[in-house]
Write a structure and sequence with these properties.
- The strands form four sheets. The chain has a five-stranded mixed β-sheet with strand order 3-8-9-10-11. Strands 1-2 form a two-stranded antiparallel sheet. Strands 4-5 form a two-stranded antiparallel ribbon.
- The protein has ten helices and eleven strands.
- Strand 1 and strand 2 form a beta hairpin.
- It starts with 10 loop residues before the first strand and ends with a strand.
- The chain is about 40% helix and about 15% strand.
- It is of the alpha+beta class.
Length: about 300
């Protein structure tokens, strides 16, 4: 079991006297500095863990609460027992910021909140999640752990989607997938298919369970099928032809025309429109240096 500290981080006892522990004191000073720069408690704790900074007796077990206790501890400005580690003005500045923050997280924009519902991994189909404590930045990544070679930030995601939509505004015929049908199995479909196989391989087959699994599998497969006889495609092309290129993303435009956003490990980002047309941008921009293509792949 881990032992608890009996003295604040940054100090040690020598010959019965509280003294400054030099390496820990440097970390204390850095924590205050990072907090004043605008880093959150969670950001700071993550950075300390990533750098394997020990908290006590060689153990790396930082979290936002342990960082908060350091920010809150007035002993660091010195008293009769504890030597000074932090200047009083630094301590006061940190606490002014703490009072202003009030512990509330900065809310995401409505567009980023919506992206959390429609962004999926292009490799496995799992929902993409937004991690807001990736060092000092945010990062979008596959919730199932698929490794990505490309750093996907809010800016990259928004820029790619904006530029793909603007490309379609300039070239509405990119959406022309008339009379094509598409089937792309989701992760739920694969999971249900595997469950059906498992049920069929049982020594004693439960026909009720098998029938239920078959129906569930069929329903999930149908949800993954998209059909377009041309009416939807033509309507989308006509509407995009009347638009002007956008400077900023419009949430209502996204909700009306974009069904899904796929992010691939190699950096490709694909916008799937409601008629099943898939427009793919490599990287996050469309300034002429990147490739943008229409895809009809399953």
């Amino acid at each position: 079991m881990s032992k608890l500290r009996t003295i604040p981080y940054g100090y040690e006892i020598r010959n019965g006297v509280v003294t400054v522990q030099p390496e820990e004191a440097k970390t204390v000073a850095e924590i205050f500095s990072l907090y004043i720069e605008g880093k959150t408690l969670q950001n700071i704790s993550y950075m300390l863990v990533q750098r394997s900074i020990p908290f006590y007796m060689g153990e790396v077990r930082w979290n936002k609460n342990s960082v908060k206790r350091i920010i809150d501890n007035a002993k660091y400005i010195g008293d009769e027992t504890y030597p000074r580690i932090i200047a009083e003005d630094v301590f006061q500045e940190a606490h002014k910021l703490k009072d202003c923050k009030g512990g509330a997280a900065t809310p995401l924009s409505p567009i980023l909140e919506y992206f959390k519902d429609i962004c999926v991994c292009g490799k496995c189909g799992t929902r993409y999640k937004r991690i807001n404590t990736w060092g000092s930045r945010e990062k979008w990544m596959c919730a199932d752990g698929c490794k990505s070679l490309f750093y996907v930030s809010d800016e990259v995601l928004e820029s790619a989607v904006l530029n793909i939509i603007n490309r379609v505004i300039r070239q509405p015929d990119l959406l022309d997938v008339t009379s094509r049908s598409h089937y792309s199995p989701s992760k739920d479909v694969v999971r249900e298919e595997n469950e059906l196989i498992r049920l069929l391989e049982q020594p004693k087959i439960s026909f009720t369970a098998v029938a239920k699994s078959i129906l569930s599998c069929a329903a999930l497969r149908f949800e993954c099928c998209t059909f377009d006889r041309g009416e939807v495609t033509q309507a989308l092309m006509d509407e995009f032809a009347e638009m002007e290129p956008m400077k900023d993303l419009d949430l209502q435009i996204i909700k009306r025309y974009v069904r899904r956003i796929k992010v691939y490990p190699n950096g490709k980002l694909t916008v799937v429109f409601y008629n099943s047309a898939e427009i793919t941008a490599i990287g996050g921009t469309d300034d002429g240096s990147n490739i943008t293509e229409t895809s009809h792949e399953n």
